[in-house]
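assembly run, all chains below
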Amino acid sequence: MASKRDLVSILDVERDLIGILELAGNFKNRQKAGETFEPLRGKSLAMIFEKASTRTRVSFEVGMSQLGGHAVNLSPQDTQLGRGETIADTAKVLSRYVDGVMYRAYRHEDMVELARNAAVPVINGLDDLEHPCQIVSDLFTILEAKKKLKGLKIAYVGDGNNVCNSLLLGAAIVAAHISVGCPPSNRPNAGILKEAERIARGTSSEVAIVTDPKKAVENADVVYTDVWVSMGMEKEKQERERLFRPYQVNSALLKHAKPDAIVMHCLPAHRGLEITDDVIDGPQSVVFEQAENRLHAQKAILARLIGAA
Ligand code: CP
Ligand code: NVA
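ok done. output:
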């Protein structure tokens, strides 16, 4: 049996990332043309959500259906996982029924455990370390808007969280420069940063972590932010809202970026906190294209990992 391919980290598609972005474009064009294209006919995807989701849940379910397949949604409360069945046993059982598992987890360790024990591909739909599907999709959105990736400057402002970690790696892989503006206490994961720096040396791109948000967005082509309080961190809400206040993406901060910079947010947004209404609803914002592209990019991921594309 050929070995299965997971997408636990965006590094798992490092060599194939550009190919996946091209396939996403192809799928998007086919869908816009009203073409029926069902390379995953008869295939099934199990989706396990430990946390809430709007975009990931709907885009994977609709994506499977558009590709001719089927998705089964599982929440731990409704399955035996919630009553103590192990992740390893769950992985082994699901592998007997479905062709892939999409998992949104609290702990990266649980993601790795599921992937290690599943005989079918496991796709990370967000955990505490990474959000690879989001960033594959976001790179597709940037490519659509800017017609290139190599040499662009992407600025990420705010919490050095899961989205930031995958963006660091993704930017380095596609040879874009990345500058993260964050408080010293909330830098991205140290291991991921080291890996991004290693990849960036090979692609001749730059990785910078700075404290000053203005410096981060200076001359940027893309300004990206995410929530200050990620799922599971609700207890730190008050402290975080105080700490990240200087990192709000507002019109004053945006003036430091290139005049044609695009503004991105993976959503859901907390308007008035990490991003202001005028910026998220303004002419530079691509957040809803970004949300739509989750569908097209994830169809490409599904076709690559579960199908034969
Ligand atoms: N961006 C994102 O993953 O959104 P959901 O939490 O709604 O899936
Ligand atoms: N960083 C956010 C992303 C939500 C899609 C979180 O983990 O809650």
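The beta strands are 44-49, 70-74, 100-104, 122-124, 153-157, 177-181, 207-210, 222-225, 262-265.

The radius of gyration is 19 Å.

not gonna interpret more than that til we talk
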